[in-house]
Amino acid sequence: MSVCFTARCAATPAGIVARRAPPRFADRSLVTTPSTSYAHHQKRRGAVAAAAGQGTEAVAAALPQLDASLDDRLSQRPLELDPAGYFIIKVDAEAKELVADFYTNFINEQGLACDPVTGKVISCKNGGVRLPARSWRGRSAKDLSVTILETDHGFQPCTHLEHANYLGRELQRAEFALLAGAAYVQD
């Protein structure tokens, strides 16, 4: 007898497949069906894309407004650098693509990112030229993040959840800049 295992099925002790009940939430507003969330995503993306032709102000109006003080406070929280490396995100407006260049590093005793070849602290200022260990291109934030985070490259470019979270946010910002025809500066 073959037994099917899926995300919604589980084997009983007798080997019979039993369907799991959906998770229960106190707040039913947290539950969305895939079709509902996809439709909402497409509607929002369409509004942003339509506004992109009207300039940056129109795109900003199409997006929900953020609490600037909350954003500033969250930007100041202490973070541990990812020992796997770091990303430099760019927008290639001519090719209509996002670019993510990955650079390796090691973290010294003071918690600073250092060049694995020279051992020197990597400056945030444009002091020297380093070649990326790997570079990825994509048409959207989702395309690029799935390629980077969910594909086997023989190494893990993100070993901290905070780093993957940051990468996703920056790719979204870069996509917004690409759609709006605006300049992108990585945070």
Automatic annotation (TrEMBL):
Family matches, as InterPro entries: PterinBD-DUF4346
Domain DUF4346: 81-187
Pfam family, one: PterinBD-DUF4346
Name of the protein: Uncharacterized conserved UCP037673
Organism: Micractinium conductrix
